[in-house]
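DM from R.C. (forwarded with permission)

"hey, sorry to bug you on a friday — could you get me a structure for this? deadline for the figure draft is monday and I only need the backbone to look sensible"
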Amino acid sequence: MMNIYQELLLDHYRYPRNRGSLATPGFFSKQYNPSCGDKIQFAGHISSELIKELVFEGEGCVISQATASMLTEVAKGKVLHEIKALDKDFIMRMIGMQLGPIRMKCALLPLIALQEGIATYNKKVSTEKSKMS
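My reply, with the result:
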């Protein structure tokens, strides 16, 4: 019998939340895991340091795709520094399963993609502010 976390992962894999694209995203990021072929990309809108909109697209295993879906739900409405603070332990609690090293890469791929997208956004905003000064 599956535990509740396995059921939640499968539900997010079969019926992903926030899957899609944005015509003009405020930020965009993608990651690829060459060892297994997983692909994740995030696009979103940020306003007043809050993630207002977040979508993802991707291909890959249940763990990477379900984690991306779950992460969109967690991240919406959060302040950027809260997303930056998320780590491996948070992902493990979110998915509720112990994973080996290979599967851990699958679970962390969406977090890496999202955090890199936000870092790129922050650099862009910082550069634009510098030019205005």
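R.C.: lifesaver. The longest helix spans residues 101-132.
me: no worries. The longest strand covers residues 50-59.
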